[in-house]
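Handoff note, outgoing to incoming analyst
You'll be picking up this chain. Sequence as last confirmed:
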Amino acid sequence: MAVWFVGYTPQIATAAMVAGANSLGHWVSLNGQTVGGSYISEAFGSTVAGPIWGDAMAAISARLDYEDFRAPAGDEIAGVLTTVPDVSGMSVKDARAKLESYGFVTELAGFINSSITADAVAGTTPAAGTSLGSGDTVGIYQSTGYVPPPPPTNKGGKKGGDDDDGKGNNGNGKGRGNR
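Most recent structure output, in case you need it:
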């Protein structure tokens, strides 16, 4: 229905657009149309709007002073680097507000086991103290409010051997053997 071509120099950015419409102003496909005396079998920005853009730029380029493109500053690429604040223990609402005030985008990252109150923020990813660019995403982990107990340590039974009662324990500690 419409194709675009956008280009720029160090001094100016311009765009050309061609859209298909019938005599009533309703959208129609550009494919199969004749525009400016040229038949368009398949419309693409580079084949339909691109030449129009090129003609317009050729008409003004002589009036523009020559300039080289310059490498952008690091903060223009990555954004201003900011340290992720510690929001542990906060409500999700308060943590989001704080992180977003620092220029970050937030998303819920799931739950992790923690002794922090259930549903409160247990941590972030990346972790507090990490430097990120403005606009980067920080995931928020909520607490389950539960820390599982450590698994029991299995020291096993005493090393056994034959005993005098005739039942034995086959070297498996306190178990009864089969003779």
